[in-house]
Amino acid sequence: MVALFIFTYFYSMVDSQAIFNITSDSAFEELALKIFRFQFENNPVYRSFCDLLYKHPSDVTSLKDIPFLPIEFFKSKQVISSQKPIEKTFSSSGTTGSKTSKHHVTDISLYEKSFNAAFKAFYGNVEDYTILALLPSYLEREGSSLVYMVDNLIKASNNVHSGFYLNELDQLNKQLIELDNSGKKTLLIGVSFALLDLVEKHQFNLKNSIVMETGGMKGKRKELIRDELHNILKTGFGVDSIHSEYGMTELLSQAYSKGKGIFKCPPWMKILTRDPEDALSIQSNHKIGGINVIDLANINSCSFIATQDLGRVSSNGTFEIIGRFDNSDIRGCNLMAL
Fold this sequence. Notes:
Elements: H1 2-13, H2 16-19, H3 25-42, H4 44-52, E1 69-70, H5 73-76, E2 88-91, E3 102-105, H6 108-123, E4 130-134, H7 136-139, H8 145-157, E5 163-165, H9 169-181, E6 186-190, H10 192-201, E7 209-213, H11 226-237, E8 243-246, E9 255-257, E10 263-264, E11 269-275, E12 278-282, E13 289-295, E14 304-313, E15 319-324
Helix pairs in contact: 1-3, 3-4, 10-11
């Protein structure tokens, strides 16, 4: 009964619209601290984690004080801060026999508001685009949050030429060239290995199209460093820059890069880095460290997540991904070769 009161009280104080109307750093911090207190009280997994660290809301007065839940918890625990029933469960991809992350979403409208608002902020009205999606590894399994987002954007584009492609590279080649030659704004979003497959089979000289990679070879090819991947794709598509999307199963928000791997967050999302040798210590800008994500749209799950990615944040809030931790232990002492 007490938990239900706290849950109801929070929602009487903060509605979802407040998240997507943030206009300043101070407003972001104020709302983040409110959400931290709410999740401390309503998320048993996060509460247990905070208790183990001896972190109580009375000890947390700034963003740097907030504990970040290791992303690995989504593989073994039900990370929920809501009393509402689960509407959708997203799951990550994984190798055979490996545990996958599960993100239980109790209000799918928050995800829809988040990705629609972010797309509009970075790219304008979705109705102005034809969206072509080359996401075979995601389409071939259930529960992809990326497929859910792109499917929603395809429908919102209200364009008969928008759609998904699996292995129809010749058909995609023809469609992409026709759209680009017609002068229509086109967004081709694809997983890295599939985009490489496309440019190995066909060469392009695009003038009116955006090419966006979502990262990952998904075991289909040898991993490439970002610069090498982007140079191959720029040459193959005949474009000056390759856009990128940074998101994950455990989040409800995405950051975007319009080139050179420099990502920018929407106003309700923020990146901090932690010391690679001390997971509880937040670093100053311009140092390479573990990526910590604050995603305020994740009210009903956990908004404060310590990922396995390595990166660097600039003073203007933009960030880049440098690599990944060698393993998933919380201290993150062993790093992959950069």
